Amino acid sequence: MITAFVPCRKGSERVKNKNTRPFAGVIGGLVRIKLEQLIQVRSIDQIVLSTNDEEVKAIGRSLGHAKIKIVDRPENLATSSASTDDLITYVPSIISAGTVLWTHVTSPFIGAEDYDEMIEAYQKALGEGHDSLMTVTKWQKFLWNEQGPVNYDRDIEKWPRTQTLQPLYEIDSGAFITDISVYQHLKDRVGQKPKLFLQEQQKSFDIDWEEDFKIAEYYWKGQSHSF
């Protein structure tokens, strides 16, 4: 049993009506796009849409698909001050068994085929000693903190070729996959040895600011989509 968990709270401090406003001409916006994508994922059995937003619920109901289960999100978990850790602890109360794929409507460029590929990679990774999977992007650039470089040694070479720099990986929050037991016992959405699933930059694009929304619309309009 594989369940997609889609958290979608009402309101956005940075992008007004981010989840539900029309996106690149799509009525129902990012919520509709993501639900349509997840419906098409062959290996997903159920989609849990966790929300306190009546408009989000209406969009979910309008699709009329048996996979979609709408769950009222408690108000204490729907405020801007609610932590992700609190939401993680809540998940086992609405998903009791199987594998959980946590994803967000703000990642519109991750499509059905991508989710199928992630799930296949996760299942393979279990046999390789991993206990979870999360999507990442690779950074192989000159990266510093206030003390100096973090991925190369200037005492050895001041400006090495970028190809030789130690790669670092950014968690892009596109998807997290693990068994519900990890949520129950570790209070986390990844286990102790997650598989890093590398995504290209556009797939990892996350809409967090108004400018992001406009950029994503531009790219979406330039592609052919059937969700």
Question: What would you note in describing this structure?
Answer:
The chain is an alpha/beta fold. The chain has one domain (2-134, 172-221): Spore Coat Polysaccharide Biosynthesis Protein SpsA, Chain A. Helix content is 27%, strand content 22%. It contains six helices and nine strands, in the order βαβαβαβαββββαβα. The chain has helices at 29-39, 54-63, 84-90, 112-126, 180-186, 210-221; strands at 2-7, 46-51, 68-72, 99-103, 132-139, 144-145, 148-149, 168-179, 194-198. The strands form two sheets. The chain has a seven-stranded mixed β-sheet with strand order 3-2-1-4-8-5-9. A hairpin with a 2-residue loop joins strand 6 (144-145) and strand 7 (148-149). Helix 1 (29-39) runs parallel beside helix 2 (54-63). One of its GO terms (molecular function) is nucleotidyltransferase activity. This is Acylneuraminate cytidylyltransferase family protein. Pfam families: CTP_transf_3. InterPro entries: CMP-NeuNAc_synthase, Cytidylyl_trans, Nucleotide-diphossugar_trans. It comes from Algoriphagus limi.
